[in-house]
Amino acid sequence: MSINIQTILVGTDFSEASQPATTYAFRLARALRARLYLMHVVPEEDLRLITSINQYLQSFITPITLTDIFYTEADKRLTQLMEDAQATDVVQERLVVTGQPADAILSWAVAKQVQLIILGTHGRRGVQHFFMGSVAERVLHGAPCAVVVVPAKPQ
């Protein structure tokens, strides 16, 4: 049985914990000559919070403008990740979307017909994991394809 992975999606939240996963994804995509989708999800709850506190801010920036700033900055950071890793040749597309991170990753994995999802993990345990949950765990349980979870670097 041969494995022929042609499309990979890697999600990043730009944290130190997600860096090993993006590095792994860039290397694997290059080795397999696969197309890589580099993705960041702007959490929906962050946008709702900004919208709800906007009336208390002494600023003329609208929630729409702030959302545009989130997207622009995320895209710049994805581009920087690609350039730093010299991986512009393997990245098929940079995706910046809004939503609940696990749901968005699963949805885009289906839309892009991804064969492998690569994610980092923060390694939360106990009460913190119970309350915050794990994007990686939710993706593992709902994924339409194989998932590789890359642990954060030991501290």
* Strand arrangement in the largest pleated sheet: 3-2-1-4-5
Number of helices: 6
Order of helices and strands: EHEHHEHEHHE
Tell me the strand percentage band.
15-25%
Q: How would you sum up the global shape?
A: globular
Distance between the termini: 38 Å
Structural class, please?
alpha/beta
Biggest sheet record:
5 strands, parallel
CATH topology: Rossmann fold
- What is the CATH superfamily classification? HUPs
Named at the architecture level, the CATH assignment is 3-Layer(aba) Sandwich
Q: Please give the radius of gyration in angstroms.
A: 16 Å
List keywords for this structure.
Rossmann fold; 155 residues; alpha/beta
Provide structural commentary.
The protein is α/β, with parallel strands linked by helices and 155 residues long. It has a single domain, classed as Rossmann fold (3-Layer(aba) Sandwich), CATH 3.40.50. Helix content is 46%, strand content 23%. The chain contains six helices and five strands; from the N terminus they run βαβααβαβααβ. It has helices at residues 19-32, 44-53, 63-84, 101-111, 126-132, 135-142, and strands at residues 7-11, 35-43, 91-99, 116-121, 146-151. A five-stranded parallel sheet has the order 3-2-1-4-5, sandwiched between helices. Helix 4 packs parallel to helix 6. The longest helix is centred in the middle third of the chain and has 22 residues, at 63-84. The radius of gyration is 16 Å and the shape is globular. 26% of the residues are buried.
Offer a quick outline of the entry:
The protein is an alpha/beta fold. It has helices spanning 19-32, 44-53, 63-84, 101-111, 126-132, 135-142; strands spanning 7-11, 35-43, 91-99, 116-121, 146-151.
